[in-house]
């Protein structure tokens, strides 16, 4: 008998360790998500320690990769947010490495992908949205609301356009997180379903093994696609964060 | 979907904020200034 578990089972957040603090009425639990979040933290720092290269001017193989990443993200911040706003680079840099390593660590079989947690992804995008809105209000005061009225709008159209712009602005908070979460969940679910179908075929005789090599090659291509999606989604998340920052700093 | 079961929501967000906050601090304090120094030094070596 072949047992098929649900393809969504891999996204369950389970507790490894519970610490109840009855005094404060709090419960601290180390979940699989918490463990992988800490793993991502350690991976990010380890990669940078490994590639530190003792501050030598001539780069090593490791440091070339990180210097390129730094140069790309620095260029992105300068281009999108503005040359005078490089103070946001540490946040963008940290966000990029957090998302990309979270996505890539999840591609290891039997591991947990923290960006497949709806609460984490959408919570992150809501936090960014909230911060960007506060930044816009702090920088421009009430003039920030001019963002919702595009230049050259006829007066009669203003109420309608304000409504449309407001909805599209509020949708950003949701869409940024959903984009990351949905892409990761869809990819991992697809791989789980396909591998669940392929394994019984591969193990049911020599002829079926040979026949199953064709879908197996497609499956391997999809694994490669999933790795590419992990990188692309991290890039898209960071680019859109830069765009939202720019919109808050320079209103239209 | 298991993601929508309301267990550990605050726990998940706490871990995300903790990790991201630590990364921003570590990168902003120790990593990015080194990159800037390195790039400036290279510019001095090659252009001046």
UniProtKB/TrEMBL annotation, chain A:
Keyword match Cell wall biogenesis/degradation: no
Protein's UniProt keywords contain Hydrolase: no
InterPro entries: ATP_synth_F0_asu, ATP_synth_F0_asu_AS, ATP_synth_F0_asu_bact/mt, F0_ATP_A_sf
Entry's localization field: Mitochondrion inner membrane
Protein's name in the database: ATP synthase subunit a
Gene expressing this chain: atp6
Species whose genome carries this gene: Rhodotorula toruloides (strain NP11) (Yeast)
PANTHER family: ATP SYNTHASE SUBUNIT A
Keywords, comma-separated and alphabetical: ATP synthesis, CF(0), Hydrogen ion transport, Ion transport, Membrane, Mitochondrion, Transmembrane, Transmembrane helix, Transport
TrEMBL record, chain B:
Database matches in InterPro entries: ATP_synth_su8_fun
Location of this chain's protein in the cell: Mitochondrion inner membrane; Mitochondrion membrane
GO cellular component entries: mitochondrial inner membrane; proton-transporting ATP synthase complex
Transmembrane segments: 15-40
Alphabetically ordered keywords of this record: ATP synthesis, CF(0), Hydrogen ion transport, Ion transport, Membrane, Mitochondrion, Transmembrane, Transmembrane helix, Transport
Keyword flag Mitochondrion: yes
GO MF annotation list: proton-transporting ATP synthase activity, rotational mechanism
Mode of membrane association: Single-pass membrane protein
Family named by the database record: Belongs to the ATPase protein 8 family.
PANTHER family according to UniProt: ATP SYNTHASE PROTEIN 8
Role: Mitochondrial membrane ATP synthase (F(1)F(0) ATP synthase or Complex V) produces ATP from ADP in the presence of a proton gradient across the membrane which is generated by electron transport complexes of the respiratory chain. F-type ATPases consist of two structural domains, F(1) - containing the extramembraneous catalytic core and F(0) - containing the membrane proton channel, linked together by a central stalk and a peripheral stalk. During catalysis, ATP synthesis in the catalytic domain of F(1) is coupled via a rotary mechanism of the central stalk subunits to proton translocation.
Assembly and oligomerization: F-type ATPases have 2 components, CF(1) - the catalytic core - and CF(0) - the membrane proton channel.
Protein name listed in UniProt: ATP synthase protein 8
Gene encoding the protein: atp8
């Amino acid at each position: 008998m072949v047992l098929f578990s649900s393809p969504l089972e891999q996204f369950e957040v389970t507790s490894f360790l519970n610490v109840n603090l009855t005094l404060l009425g709090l419960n601290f639990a180390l979940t699989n998500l918490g463990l992988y979040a800490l793993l991502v933290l350690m991976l990010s720092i380890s990669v940078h320690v490994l590639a530190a290269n003792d501050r030598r001017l001539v780069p090593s193989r490791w440091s070339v990769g990180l210097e390129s990443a730094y140069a790309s993200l620095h260029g992105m911040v300068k281009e999108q947010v503005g040359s005078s706003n490089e103070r946001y680079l540490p946040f963008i840099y940290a966000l990029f490495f957090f998302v990309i390593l979270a996505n890539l660590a999840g591609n290891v079989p039997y591991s947990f992908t923290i960006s497949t947690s709806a609460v984490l992804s959408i919570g992150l995008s809501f936090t960014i949205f909230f911060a960007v809105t506060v930044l816009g209000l702090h920088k421009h005061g009430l003039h920030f609301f001019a963002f919702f009225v595009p230049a050259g709008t006829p007066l009669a159209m203003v109420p309608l356009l304000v409504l449309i712009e407001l909805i599209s602005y509020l949708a950003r908070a949701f869409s940024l997180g959903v984009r990351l979460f949905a892409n990761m969940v869809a990819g991992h679910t697809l791989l789980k379903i396909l591998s669940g179908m392929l394994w019984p075929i591969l193990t049911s005789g020599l002829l079926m093994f040979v026949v199953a090599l064709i879908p197996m090659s497609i499956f391997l291509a999809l694994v490669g696609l999933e790795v590419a999606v992990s990188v692309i989604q991290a890039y898209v998340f960071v680019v859109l964060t830069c765009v939202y920052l720019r919109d808050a700093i320079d209103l239209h | 979907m298991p993601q929508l079961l309301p267990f550990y929501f605050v726990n998940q967000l706490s871990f995300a904020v903790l990790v991201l906050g630590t990364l921003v601090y570590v990168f902003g304090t120790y990593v990015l200034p080194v990159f800037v120094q390195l790039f400036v030094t290279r510019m001095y070596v090659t252009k001046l």
